[in-house]
Design goal:
Layout (H helix, E strand, L loop, with lengths): L1 E10 L3 H32 L5 H12 L12 H19 L15 E6 L3 E3 L4 E3 L19 E9 L5 E10 L12 E3 L3 E5 L4 E3 L3 H18 L5 H11 L1
Antiparallel strand pairs: 1-6, 2-5, 3-4, 5-6, 7-8, 8-9
Helix pairs in contact: 1-3, 2-3, 4-5
Length: 239
């Protein structure tokens, strides 16, 4: 049975890789916001629907203009994928599954998506396009040898941490049906109580960190907006 699996790991880029990723994030964000504005203006001014193929052609023309030549400095795949994500966002909006697409912010979470033509995977190391060395990934769990990586998404959160998500196609053998049955009762004092009498304790992760979070938020509220101290305090809250 073929299934899709996703694996997420933290990684630590070199200064050169961080610089490349920063430019890639910026180009992908610019393409998304620019084409969002183009599609919005086309409808508001001319009641014209602009789809993915039209925005792709517009991006190609944009890259040929001298003032936008910097778009060619990064891999074209993440920039192109940003247009696909915009198309998906509009599809969700028209299907009434989501609100109207919003511009991506520079101070928010940053991400870039690479398809198979923009990365190399040898079974133990991952190298992205426009980079000379593989990413320094903390492999917290192994990737199945039979798994085929189809998409790599690199992200940076507001606390400055880098993560890589791998979407894989994997073949999994069907498990035999279990002969026994067990009832599960979710509770308040315990996370779950099984019909066998076994009790599963609640992790209470939030309660354990609630006091620390409140303290950091109070410190953040006292910092001057726009200052480096407020930026550092914001990172601590995000962590």
């Amino acid at each position: 049975m073929d299934i899709k699996c996703a694996y997420r790991f933290r990684f630590y880029p070199t200064p050169e890789q961080a610089s490349t990723l920063a430019r890639t994030f910026g180009c992908a964000r610019f393409a998304y916001n620019h084409m969002l504005r183009l599609r919005t203006d086309a409808w508001m001014q001319r009641q014209e629907h602009v789809g993915y193929h039209a925005t792709s052609a517009a991006l190609t023309a944009l890259k040929k203009q001298p003032e936008y030549v910097w778009l060619n400095e990064v891999s074209s795949v993440p920039v192109q994928q940003a247009l696909r994500h915009l198309q998906t966002a509009f599809g969700n909006f028209f299907a009434k599954r989501a609100r109207y697409p919003q511009s991506r912010r520079k101070d928010g979470k940053q991400s870039a998506e690479y398809t198979t033509s923009a990365f190399k995977w040898n079974g133990s190391a991952l190298k992205l396009a426009k980079m000379d060395a593989p990413l320094d990934i903390r492999w917290s769990r192994p990737i199945p040898k039979a798994a085929k990586i189809t998409t790599v998404t690199v992200s940076k959160d507001t606390a400055g941490r880098y993560f890589v998500s791998l979407l894989c196609d994997d073949a999994v053998a069907a498990k035999p049906e279990a002969s026994g049955k067990v009832g599960i009762d979710l509770g308040l004092t315990h996370f779950a109580i099984l019909s066998t009498g076994e009790k599963v304790a609640a992790p209470n992760t939030f309660r354990k960190n609630q006091a620390k979070l409140a303290k950091l938020q109070r410190r953040l509220a006292k910092k001057t907006k726009g200052s480096n101290r407020r930026r550092k305090a914001k990172f601590k809250v995000a962590r």
